[in-house]
Structure formats: C-alpha cells, structure tokens
Amino acid sequence: MKTYLFKISEELDGERLDKALLSLTDSLSRSFIQKLIKEGGVTVNGAAVAKPGFRLSSDDELHFDLPDAVQPEILAENIPLDILYEDQDVIVVNKPKGMVVHPTAGHYSGTLVNALMYHSGTELSGINGVMRPGIVHRIDRDTTGALIACKNDMAHNAIAAQLKEHSIHRVYHAICYGCMEENKGTVDAPIGRHPTDRKKMAVNYKNGKEAVTHYQVQRRFGKYTYLTCQLETGRTHQIRVHMASIGHPLLGDEIYASGRTSPFQLQGQCLHAMTLGFVHPRSGEYIEVNAPLPEYFEHLLKALD
C-alpha cells in the first residue's frame, strides 16, 4: 500500500481536484484519478470528495491510498509455433498476424510469450521480468515475420548488445501507398512519442531518438509500391512512421495512413519481417534466417499484378 499526502500550494488555489492530482503525481492517468475520486478514494481535509471538479483552496490537505500492484501469473499455452531456427540458446519464430509479442495490462493470454512458455518451459531468459521472459525485441501485433527469443541470460545479453550496436541484419518487406519515384533512399529522422496523441509515435526532432531506415523499391503498381526496408535502428513503429513521414504510409495501416481506406481486406499494415541475421551468442557464427512471405502478402502481390 502506498500513501499519498499533499498540501495545496498557492499555485493550485482554485484548481480542479482531478487536475491538481494529475499535476502532483507523475504515474497516474487522469481517467484513473477521476475514477478514484468518484469512488470516494480521495479525501480533502479528512472528508471524502466524490467530484473530480471540486475546487481546491490553498492549504487544503489531500490524502489517498493505492494498493500495491499485483503481478499477474502468465500461463503457458499450447499455441502452435512456426519455428525457423532453434538451439540451446535462441529460438527464431515466424510470428503470425494478430499475435501480440508479450502480455500487457488486460491482455495476458494468446501472446507469443504464452506460446514460448509452453514450448520451452523454464528455458527462457529472465532479464526482462516475468511478463516478458525470453523477449529481447518486438514486432507489432499485425506485423508478421522473424523474431528472436533467448533461452538464457547469456544469450539475451549478447543479442541485446547486437541490437544496441545496430549490428543485427533486419530486412522487412512492405507495400505502401503511392508510386515511389526513387528506386532507393534513406529516411534519417528521430522518432519519439507524438506530441498530442500518446498512443502514436512520430518524427520528433526535439525529443526523439535516432532512427534510420533504408528502403529499396522492388515493384511499382501505379497506386502502390512494393519495397524492402532495412533497419539500422529499431524504434517503435519505425518503418510505419518513416514511410508515412515521406508520404508513403503502409497499405492497411490504421494508425499512420492518415485516413486512407484500403480497397483490400487487410488486418493492419502490410509489413513482414523477412530476414534476421545475427552472430550466435555461443559459437560466434553468423546465422541468417528468412521467414517466407505470408499467404495474404503473396495473394496481395498477385492481385496488384
């Protein structure tokens, strides 16, 4: 149980209760604060106040308690895995569309982690905690393709170091809106949280982290372009954000395609992690794995032809 006690300063005199608590706490959302207030969980000068819009006065004393977070138990599930490579240290799987990589709040089953726990048991690295055993990097829910997981901490540290040094070879296949004029190019633009929509990423020169994507056209279809993208860095939604930033969002992308409607029945963005190359953490041998294009991608290419 964590106890919060605050005394209202002159700067917050006349402020709404929910807004005041939002500014005084850095880890609670406004919706959570409002729910807490409505349920009578916040007292002002010793009396419960159930109205988020209650106006405060300087020197008012606020109090509320938060119970300790309970870590949910993540269960092994017998979910089939398309294994591209496996040994005592690492496993590379071909992740299908619609599968979340690791459990998150309110989504504790059906993930790649649940499947890996069933397949590998306790043979997964523990560096990222009980919610993400074995997970050293991620790809989006509706992105398909090659993803590496680690069976022990030695392998995890080695692969994480390669990711940090940008030495892992990663090539994605994608179909984007528009006919690209250049045969190849590079997008070198930092990526960070969107300034107004916290669920999105964006090119952010003020607070973003370095992000570099190299792309090359494979085929043009008039209104669409089939291309490959090689990652130099691995930021959240990197290819999706970078392609949208140059006017070529990915086909089917429901977040970054700026309201464009796909004429095809797609589940999310048309993006596939085809090639994954890394130096094996134990042998030092370079290993390269290729995940074949998924059926929906092949069918889409034929339809565009």
What's the quick description here?
The chain is α+β, with helices and mostly antiparallel strands and about 300 residues long. It is about 20% helix and about 30% strand. The strands form three sheets. Strands 5, 6, 7, 8, 9, 12, 13, 14 and 15 form a nine-stranded mixed beta sheet that branches. It has a four-stranded antiparallel beta sheet with strand order 1-4-2-3, with no helix packed on it. Strands 10-11 form a two-stranded antiparallel sheet.
SSE arrangement:
Elements: E1 2-7, H1 17-24, H2 30-38, E2 43-44, E3 47-48, E4 61-66, E5 83-86, E6 90-95, H3 112-120, E7 144-150, H4 153-164, E8 169-177, E9 184-188, E10 191-193, E11 201-203, E12 212-220, E13 224-231, H5 238-245, E14 271-279, E15 286-290, H6 295-304
Parallel strand pairs: 7-14
Antiparallel strand pairs: 1-4, 2-3, 2-4, 5-6, 6-7, 8-13, 8-14, 9-12, 10-11, 12-13, 14-15
Question: Which terms would index this structure?
Answer:
305 residues, alpha+beta, 9-stranded mixed beta sheet, 6 helices, globular
Polypeptide structure, described:
- With 305 residues, the protein is an alpha+beta fold.
- It is 18% helix and 28% strand.
- The protein contains six helices and 15 strands.
- It has helices at residues 17-24, 30-38, 112-120, 153-164, 238-245, 295-304, and strands at residues 2-7, 43-44, 47-48, 61-66, 83-86, 90-95, 144-150, 169-177, 184-188, 191-193, 201-203, 212-220, 224-231, 271-279, 286-290.
- Strands 5, 6, 7, 8, 9, 12, 13, 14 and 15 form a nine-stranded mixed beta sheet that branches. A four-stranded antiparallel beta sheet has the order 1-4-2-3, with no helix packed on it.
- A hairpin with a 6-residue loop joins β14 (271-279) and β15 (286-290).
- α1 crosses α2 (30-38).
- It is globular, with a radius of gyration of 24 Å.
- The relative contact order is 0.12.
- The mean pLDDT is 92.
